[in-house]
Write a structure and sequence with these properties.
This protein is an alpha/beta fold. It contains 21 helices and 16 strands. The strands form three sheets. Strands 2, 3, 4, 5, 6, 10 and 11 form a seven-stranded antiparallel beta sheet that branches. The chain has a five-stranded parallel beta sheet with strand order 14-13-12-15-16, covered by helices on one side. Helix 11 (322-333) packs parallel to helix 13 (364-381).
Length: 529
């Protein structure tokens, strides 16, 4: 069996049969590069040992191991460095850039079921991509490729067994303890903190201040005079950090989106499985151009704060069956794509087939957590951090730390519902002591999903009336950016979202059209280089 591995997208370290990118924590010490490759090399006696060890690690990393005609793959729970693979004939091919695998696929076409899923959620389901023969490693998954077969092991995100009540004091202590290891790495670095008026980035501002990290620049971007910037500036000034606001305009788009670099970014961040996020690209491009940040800067995004705090939960969730869960997922996380009845039935079929995951998620709550974590937090929201990798800037996600995430997922449902304990912890243990307990959004509990009659009414109301009701001028300037992209591909017939301010509905259609055009023009060739 011939193995073919191409790693070109991320900075990889190679040691004998092991390739690795990223880092993990070992006794509060960051381990990366050749040292991490050595760590993994000590776990390669057999795949079972490698898989068991890999699933217990905490960090942002991916690994490839070549062993006697086999390939072992692993992506950590953050899915920071996606991996893709193809099994064809006597060749096993692996890469971090799926573009390199396309020549091995004769006449690739987008799969109907995966296409339908992507149009509704902006990601492809589980381990699939838009191209049927091209597979991806899931978040927290290890894969053994051998001959024409594969073996998959998915590590659970509910890392602590059972449930255990928490207190604001205990959770604050945990957050500080875990952030301490990040502070050790960041102590000599210049730091960019993307800052909004929300809870998560405000928490990071508190932690940076508490640990004496002073080389911090806070930045907010989007529509001029948006709702986020005044509060973000006040938070930064209270902490003694400089704040920059980057106003977006159509001139921003016309200048930066016309560059060849922008098309490169779309392919880099989309990788045939995720809708590329646009909202951060123009800001990072600006900050680099102006010399505010550079290759040595470390960025601290607030992912996945809304997940660990429980923003996705609703009161009746624990009693849902699989079909009801699928409907709740579509209602809560769909991008308002106007699916037909047949397309919606197919969507439910995909969700219920791919996400029971009996080994790692048994209850309705765990299944809902798993879907949100994997499909939304990792593949969609977390995937937006690829903008930093694209510009060769390091990034850390302290709130994605496995110990922090695992403890919040262990809380009883009542303490997670409405983000109640998370909000209490941040307000009483961080914001109030720092003088940042102002302009806080009220606690919010997600509804259980709209009754079918309301869903039907939304479909029937004329679009011009919905445009009057829904707020169209978003804080990010997505409305205008989306319009410009749509005008750049005028031959494409777009389906309008049921809610006109759901601009991701247009972006998924735009990106999918680019992918299908690329696949149509794929030359096709044997993958033996």
């Amino acid at each position: 069996m011939k193995t073919n591995v191409k790693t070109v997208k991320f900075p990889w370290s190679v040691r004998e049969e092991v390739r690795v990118t990223g880092y993990l924590w070992s006794e509060d010490r960051m381990v990366g590069g050749a040292d991490l490759a050595g760590f993994i090399g000590n776990q390669t006696a057999c795949y079972e040992r490698f898989s068991e060890w890999f699933g217990k690690q905490n960090g942002q990393f991916s690994a490839i191991v070549e062993q006697n005609g086999e390939i072992w793959l692993g992506c950590s729970h953050t899915w920071s460095y996606p991996l893709f693979y193809l099994q064809k004939g006597d060749v096993l091919a692996v890469t971090d850039d799926p573009e390199h695998l396309l020549p091995a696929i004769d006449k690739p076409v987008a799969d109907r079921e995966t296409r339908n899923y992507f149009l509704n959620f902006g990601v492809t389901p589980a381990g699939y991509t838009i191209v049927p023969d091209l597979m991806q490693v899931r978040p927290g998954e290890t894969v053994l490729l051998k001959g024409g077969s594969s073996q998959h092991t998915l590590s659970p995100i509910h890392t602590f067994s059972g449930t255990r009540n928490g207190t604001s004091e205990e959770l604050a202590r945990l957050i500080r303890e875990e952030f301490g290891k990040y502070a050790g790495f960041l102590k000599d670095k210049e730091i960019l903190l993307p800052l909004t008026r929300g809870y998560d980035s405000r928490l990071l501002a508190c932690l940076l201040k508490e640990f004496g990290l002073t080389k911090v620049t806070c930045a907010t971007w989007g529509r001029p005079a948006n709702r986020e910037s005044p509060t973000a500036r006040r938070v930064a000034e209270t902490q003694g950090f400089p704040h920059i606001f980057i106003p977006y305009s159509t001139d921003t788009f016309h200048r930066d989106a016309k560059e060849e670099m922008f098309d490169d970014y779309i392919g880099y961040a989309g990788h045939y499985s995720s809708m590329p996020f646009l909202q951060d690209y123009f800001a990072i491009r600006h900050l680099l151009r102006e010399g505010v940040i550079h290759a040595g800067t470390a960025v601290l995004p607030g992912h996945p704060g809304d997940f660990i705090r429980g923003a996705h939960l609703f009161p009746s969730l624990p009693g849902k069956d699989d079909i009801s869960l699928a409907n709740a997922i579509i209602s809560a996380f769909g991008n308002s794509y106007p699916a037909t009845h047949r397309e919606r039935d197919l969507l439910r079929k995909t969700i219920t087939r791919e996400f029971p995951e009996k080994n790692t998620a048994k209850t309705a709550l765990q299944k809902f957590d798993l879907w949100d974590y994997e499909e939304r937090q990792c593949k969609l929201i977390g995937n937006s951090s690829l903008v930093y990798d694209f510009f060769k800037i390091s990034h850390l996600s302290p709130l994605f730390d496995k110990n922090i995430m695992g403890r919040f997922l262990q809380l009883p449902f009542g303490q997670r519902l409405g983000c109640s304990l998370y909000y209490e912890t941040l307000t009483t243990q961080f914001f109030s002591p720092h003088g940042l307990d102002f302009d806080l959004r009220p606690a919010y509990t997600k509804p259980a999903g709209r009754p079918a009659v309301i869903e039907t009414l939304i479909k029937l109301v004329p679009r011009f009336l919905k445009k009057i009701y829904y707020p169209l001028d978003d804080d990010v300037f997505y409305r205008e950016f989306t319009g410009e992209l749509m005008r750049s591909s005028q031959k494409l017939h777009y389906r309008h979202p049921l809610k006109p301010h759901f601009y991701n509905c247009y972006l998924t259609q735009w990106y999918l059209a680019k992918v299908e055009s690329r696949l149509k023009n794929n030359p096709g060739a044997d993958f033996h280089d």
